[in-house]
Amino acid sequence: MNKTAFIPAVGLLLFSQSLMAASFTFTAIPDEDESQLRTRFDKVALYLEKELGVDVNYVPVKSYSAAVTAFRNNQVQLAWFGGLSGVQARRLVPGSEAIAQGYEDQFFKSYIIAHSSTGLKSSEQFPEIEDLTFTFGSKGSTSGRLMPQYFIEQQLKKKPQDAFKRVGFSGDHSRTIAQVQAGAYQVGAVNYKVWESSLAAGKIDPSKVSVIWKSPVYPDYQWTIRSGVETQFGEGFTEKVKQALLNMDDADLLASFPRASFVEADNSDYQPVEDVAKQIGLID
Description:
Layout lengths: L16 H6 L1 E5 L5 H19 L3 E3 L5 H9 L5 E4 L1 H10 L4 E6 L7 E6 L17 E4 L5 H15 L3 H4 L2 E4 L3 H10 L4 E5 H9 L8 E6 L7 E4 L3 H5 L3 H10 L4 H5 L6 E3 L6 H9 L5
Parallel strand pairs: 1-2, 1-3, 6-7, 6-8
Antiparallel strand pairs: 3-10, 4-10, 4-11, 5-8, 5-9
């Protein structure tokens, strides 16, 4: 069986009601190249199907906001969210729970990267990037927008649009790396995990782009399950999903995230993310 059920970006509301009724569906924020996400999450669907004893389908989406919308509309019952998108989704669907996070997500980081032409080098001090061109990732990204913007505002005492010559939003971390490496932007902010996996895969030319600053840590990605799943799938289903995620120990599958393991998470773990989002005006 094909474990992927695609939801077009403009056609979310047309998603098959029969598929929703028959399947436990999940999605993930599109933070990397789509082909990598499909490979990863089709494997997750097969794993969960075996562990849960129900039909499981992965539902790709085209944007972070589309992932939140699918969750709000009950087109998916589980999502691999970033810190900010998880906060947004749980605010829209009260009673939903963060149930698991990657071990590394307890102390996540953003990297600021720069094109070699800037002459900027790695430093523990916040870099002198004012008046350069700068790209974030997705507008809804925790590690590619929310936290970098917060650190920029704290350090430069200016909003990004006032601090930089030009501000862009690449859409995902892979594209941020590609754009800075190509010189389309002089500086950018990326998820450290995507940077490190891309570097290991030989997709980064260190002579053209490098890390110039590493942020303080913060909580990030998590699995969030929608309230009401036990009505559809039976009493105790939330705990069953949680344990399946915590017990995931396939080395290849974990490496595809990449995470060492999954550990317990709680909504309160993401209060710092919500506080920052309110402070810089991304949520009310």
